[in-house]
Write a structure and sequence with these properties.
single chain, 193 residues, mainly alpha, Arc Repressor Mutant, subunit A, Tetracycline Repressor, domain 2, 0% strand, HTH_TetR, transcription regulation, Tet_transcr_reg_TetR-rel_C_sf, HTH-type_TetR-like_transc_reg, WHG domain-containing protein
Amino acid sequence: MSPRIGLDRATLLQAATEMADEYGLESVTLSSLAQKLKIRSPSLYNHVKGLPDLRRELALSGLSKMAARFEAVLPEACGDEVLHDFSVAYLDFARQHPGLYEAVQRAPDPEDRELSEAGGQVVSLVVRVIETYGLSGDAAIHAVRGIRSVLHGFVSIERQGGFGMPLDLDVTFRLLVDTFIAGIKALRVQGET
């Protein structure tokens, strides 16, 4: 294999993203990436420090794409539509980029300021969605954790082929989000009494 002319970090990251989305995050190794790019593995060290650095870059890319998707739907909706649109954007991202989705699920090293800030930006967008229900402080954080758990649970079961019955998954998803919304409204009412 001869060195590939014009290989840059963006090309490397795009190839790693394609591999992660098609075969899963664990399939992305320096060896497999080098093979895909038709280069020798040591050539990758001109662009990344190693596999942990590559996975960090995938997580940063995933968080950036996820945030852009969430920002795109937030101004368009109002009322319960905000949470529905956010939830659909979350599901669509996970379906279209399963490898990047997997990469963003790992908690960042607290010392990694850039990754923590990227994750914080996504969380702040989710908080904005939850705040439309009048929740703030601890109640908002609990609700953010709740919607993340609900959405991640659905994504994980769907990805593993766990929904075997012949019913429309999008209908199930909408019912799930509607149920969560009813719970948030109940939580808000409890907070008011």
